[in-house]
Specification:
The complex is a heterodimer of chains A (749) and B (153). In chain A, 32% of the residues lie in helices and 22% in strands. By secondary structure, chain A is an alpha+beta fold. In chain A, α1 packs across α7, α3 packs parallel to α7 (148-175) and α18 (548-567) packs parallel to α22 (721-733). Chain B folds into 2 domains: 2-74, Roll (Ubiquitin-like (UB roll)), CATH 3.10.20; 83-152, [2Fe-2S]-binding domain (DNA polymerase, domain 1). In chain B, a hairpin with a 2-residue loop joins β1 and β2 (8-11). Classes of the chains: A alpha+beta (749), B alpha+beta (153).
Chain lengths: 749, 153
């Protein structure tokens, strides 16, 4: 497998300048080398040795095709390339590059296979490899699924190594000294006499030769940048107000647009009256767009004010009008054979054991949730007769390009997407409705750059939400142990919904996200069953930080905790006893050790809860300590242990872990998106509060490295956060809360 | 109308009800202060008016009078950092960074009036600034570290 894998990766790396080596995936398209997008656009004296490294007289540009939504992806991608290229990543120019199929994401598709992450059998691994084929065919250049590091760990270092050896070969041509006599250091090739040839001076020679692809990656012991704390490259800009986000970009002659689209998502405008808006200061035009009305003005604030002044009659949204009606549709499908979507876990004989006598039963519920990143959705678009240019923060640049091409009637290669720095996403930027609105407006303003910024209200009421879900749990205990565990989860199909928008087609077959984070947990319960039931498509839904596991983490671990209490066992000891995966068990043991676990009770009003979820291949365990002082719950301290296989930057990892846990807890405390008259009711942060500094607990984070594969850490902290808090509240108060957000039932201090 | 931002005087012609935030961002091109909510719920737009932290999304330009405005750009620059910014970089606080201009301006304002704040005072002063990435544990640590630095300077 080792050699085969290397060839495959090289084939993908080299692009059109390459040797076509790979014979891995059988189909012609999948083994055909992908064109190196940097080669189409090169000037004299520039060299693009791989799709990730471009060198000219001005310096070295590292292409970082995975979007940075705040998780430090640009810095990490640059460091992976620089580790082999021997340059200071801080001295390089970083660019997300123009989108291209060469930047497809294979790792993100690996997660969709029907094997739990702890299953690393030959069969599971083979199927995972095959998932790179559709990723490549569909040009899946996307950022998500905590996949940037696993996808780039080898790819990007290989890119750096190929570039380095090719530059050395160029130096050989110039100096006559054999390549194996040359070294590289800090952006130069170093000759045996100590003299240096800068990469920038070797660029034109390097461009004229075949890339050297027979390279080996350096062992970990030689790493200079990886495996240790490194300052993030974007940190000074972000601490001085000089980081330029999409919303900050300005062009000469640019106009500012606002939209109001139907809050009944997907429904039309019946009629509108813009007479007041048209007479307001700075307003240039009011025009209809798909499902809404746009205002063009000379300033965003004026455009918003005028948009508010348009009198619009809306058609009703194409789904049940209230939250209660929506959840009643979900409730209907749970345990209904007709709506059964999949059952990927069915061990022992759950039915028979439950029929033996009385069993434990409970219903759990999680709400719809907005993403609400701090930077609202925005895009700048300029359309001319033969070009469409788009500046926006996005996780799906190739889909944006294709959708804009369809809308504008231009060929795909006449649409240019320039990915901008993002003020958060949490999955919202996996959608492009706002970009397409800007394209529509720009088509009516040809030759003028149009900047569309959604107001916070437009953003939060036109989101593609984390799906609400209901789970019914049943179980039995025997001899102080959990003996039967049966979870039935009902939810609309998230992937089918998203793919429908992305690719104009639904994906056939089951929608794994309904039970991701439940069916795939590393426990051996004698009778163990998890079933997904598909609710109809209602309000539009999408991926929200940790996707299916965001709700399932709560369902699975809450039910497990309740059964362990039923059995009279210790919550941590019983999870450890049931755990069938060594890596996961060590994570649980470690969280017990650092939290000083000696049972769920700490003192009269204080308790602790443990929770575990394996998501995106990362086992994550949390112990949360809370106090109930009569007025409400105070979260005191949170201990988190994860295992990502290899820690590339402990400082950034810690930030992603506590950030993810806070994200999970904040929404569990007090956030939900509800509907009345088909419209989302929470339109700003006053109604979607999250966690504030005074509520933030102390954190202790430990990362283990027992796992065999390297993993990403943007999401895995989220799923166990809510159940650890719920389990802690139970330990402190005796009150078991099975519905999120918790503040419907208890106050927080 | 005349306004003074970061010690520079500007002449502007806008409606008196236009919020300071939008004057800064779109009339003057000063984009450090961010739009997050427009209703003083997130603090991303925080600037100093006469030295005090103010939500610029809620201050109508007509109400500014002769007050002087300082934005994050006026606090310090990448080449000449304010001590609070220096501490922020040392602690690697920012993730997406979008709220951090506001967080830093809020912290600088707190420390200029209270050089040695208690944990409760830090929580009270900083809890109006929302961070969706969850950088809070480092914000709490960095405000304490910046206080120490300022006392030593």
């Amino acid at each position: 497998m080792g050699r085969l894998r290397t060839i495959t990766r090289r084939t993908f790396l080299i692009g059109s300048a390459a040797i076509a080596g790979g014979v891995v995936f059988g189909t012609y398209l999948a083994k055909r080398p992908i064109k190196n997008p940097l080669l189409t656009d090169l000037q004299d004296g520039e060299a693009a040795i791989t799709p990730y490294v471009k060198i000219d007289a001005n310096g070295v540009t590292l292409i970082t095709p995975r979007a940075d939504k705040g998780q430090g992806a640009y810095s990490m991608q640059a460091r992976l390339i620089a580790e082999e290229l021997d340059i200071d990543p801080a001295s390089a120019i970083l660019s997300p590059g123009l989108p291209g199929p060469a930047y497809y994401n294979g790792a993100v598709m690996e997660e969709s296979v029907p094997f739990p992450a702890y299953d690393q059998s030959t069969m599971a691994e083979t199927v995972r490899k095959f998932m790179h084929v559709p990723a490549k065919l569909f040009s899946m250049q996307m950022t998500g699924g905590s996949s940037t590091v696993p996808d780039g760990f080898v790819k990007l270092r290989m890119a750096g190594a190929i570039a380095r050896e090719t530059l050395k070969e160029a130096a050989t041509l110039k100096s006559g000294i054999a390549r194996d006599q040359l070294k590289t250091e800090d952006g130069s090739v170093v000759l045996p006499d100590g003299s240096r040839l800068a990469y920038t001076d070797l660029a034109s020679t390097a461009a004229s030769i075949e890339p050297i692809t027979d390279v080996e990656l350096r062992p970990k012991s030689d790493w200079k940048f990886l495996g240790k704390p490194m300052p993030r490259i974007d940190m000074p800009a972000k601490c001085t107000g000089t980081e330029q986000y999409g919303i900050d970009l300005v062009f000469d002659g640019m106009v500012h647009a606002a939209v109001r689209a139907n809050p009944g998502l997907g429904a039309k405008v019946k009629s509108y009256d813009a007479s007041v808006a048209e007479s307001m200061r700075g307003v240039q035009k009011v025009l209809p767009i798909n499902n809404g009305v746009a205002v063009i003005a000379d300033n965003t604030w004026r455009a918003w004010r005028a948009a508010d002044a348009v009198d619009i009659q809306w058609a009703a949204g194409p789904y049940p009008g209230t939250t209660d009606e929506i959840f009643s549709e979900i409730e209907k499908v749970v345990d209904s054979d007709e709506h059964r979507d999949h059952r990927q876990r069915d061990e022992g004989d759950v039915e028979a054991v439950l029929e033996e006598g009385e069993y434990f039963e409970a219903v759990y519920k999680v709400p719809y949730l907005a993403h609400a990143p701090m930077e609202p959705m925005n895009a700048i678009v300029k359309v001319t007769d033969d070009r469409c240019e788009i500046w926006t923060g996005t996780q799906i640049p190739l889909f944006v390009r294709d959708h804009a091409a369809d809308l504008s009637g231009l060929d795909k290669d006449r649409v240019f997407v320039y990915v901008q720095a993002m003020g958060g996403s949490f999955g919202h930027k996996l959608e492009d409705t706002h970009v397409l609105q800007a394209v529509e407006i720009a088509l009516a303003m040809k030759g003028t750059a149009v900047k569309l910024v959604w107001s916070r209200e437009e953003d939060m009421t036109h989101d593609y939400l984390r799906p609400g879900a209901i789970a019914k749990g049943r179980g039995r205990v025997a001899d102080g142990k959990v003996d039967a565990f049966d979870l039935s989860v009902g939810q609309s199909a998230l992937m089918a919904d998203w793919f429908g928008r992305l690719m104009g087609m639904t994906i056939p077959g089951p929608d794994a996200t309904i039970t991701t984070g439940s069916w795939d947990q590393p426990f051996a319960i004698p009778n163990y069953r998890v079933t997904g039931y598909r609710a109809p498509t209602m309000v539009p839904i999408s991926s929200w930080r940790s996707v299916g596991a965001s709700g399932n983490g709560f369902f699975h671990d809450s039910l497990l905790d309740e059964l362990i209490y039923e059995a009279g066992a210790d919550p941590l000891a019983e999870r450890i006893r049931l755990c069938l995966d060594d890596t996961s068990r060590k994570v649980l043991e470690k969280v017990g050790e650092i939290s000083g676990w000696d049972g769920p009770s700490i003192s009269e009003n204080r308790g602790r809860g443990v929770a575990f979820c394996l998501s995106f291949g990362v086992p994550a365990a949390i112990v949360t300590e809370v106090t109930h002082n009569g007025a409400g719950i105070k979260i005191d301290k949170v201990f988190v242990v994860v295992d990502v296989g290899e820690v590339l930057d402990p400082i950034n990892l810690e930030a992603q872990v506590f950030g993810g846990v806070i994200f999970g807890m904040a929404h569990a405390m007090n956030c939900e998106t509800t509907f009345e008259n088909h419209a989302a009711m929470q339109d700003n942060y006053h109604a979607f509060e999250g966690m504030r500094l005074y509520q933030v607990p102390e954190f202790e984070v430990v990362a283990l490295s027992n796992a065999k594969k390297i993993r990403g850490i943007g999401e895995p902290g989220v799923p166990p956060a809510a159940p650890s808090l719920g389990n802690a509240i139970f330990a402190a108060t005796g009150q078991r809360i099975r519905e999120l957000p918790f503040n419907k039932h208890i106050d927080f201090l | 109308m005349q306004i003074t931002v970061n010690d520079t005087s500007y002449t502007i012609d806008v409606e008196p009800e236009m919020p300071l935030l939008w004057v800064l961002r779109e009339e003057l091109g000063i984009t450090g202060p961010k739009y997050g909510c427009g209703i003083a719920q997130c603090g991303a737009c925080t600037v100093h008016v006469n030295g005090y932290a103010v939500r610029s999304c809620q201050l109508a330009i007509g109400d500014l009078g002769n007050s002087s405005v300082k934005t994050i750009e006026g606090l310090g620059t990448p080449d000449s950092l304010h001590i609070v910014q220096e501490a922020w970089i040392e602690h690697q606080v920012a993730q997406c960074g979008y709220c951090q201009s506001g967080q830093i301006m809020q912290a600088a304002s707190l420390l200029s009036t209270n050089p040695d704040p208690s944990d409760d005072q830090i929580d009270a002063a900083m809890s109006g600034n929302l961070c969706r990435c969850g950088t809070y544990p480092r914000i709490r640590a960095v405000v304490k570290a910046a206080a120490k630095k300022l006392q030593g300077s």
